[in-house]
Task: structure prediction
Amino acid sequence: MGLSTHVLDTMHGTPAAGMVVALYAVVGESASLLKQLVLNQDGRNPDGLLLEGAALERGCYRLVFDVAGYYLARGVALPEPNFLGKVQIDFGIAQPAQHYHVPLLVSPWSYSTYRGS
Result:
């Protein structure tokens, strides 16, 4: 079906509009960039699904969220070095016919994720 993500900024209680996200395919120690995007006003990919149909294959993937860049752009004073710079989530797709949703709840000091619906 497809792969999607959604990021919520728990510090401000809003979607993380403007956050830069990169998607990689991972094989062993090697990661290949599949796409990079900027989240829309709803904290989602403006083009819809990150991968869909035959493009979503069984295997390992990585999402990298530029958390520090997002908060700096919002004018948040962060320490140097930042506690969270980029959040990297490695996950597997076992059944490409299913939908995989990877939400991220994030602040400058914490994050959580889960397999959403």
About this structure: The chain has one domain: 2-113. The radius of gyration is 14 Å.
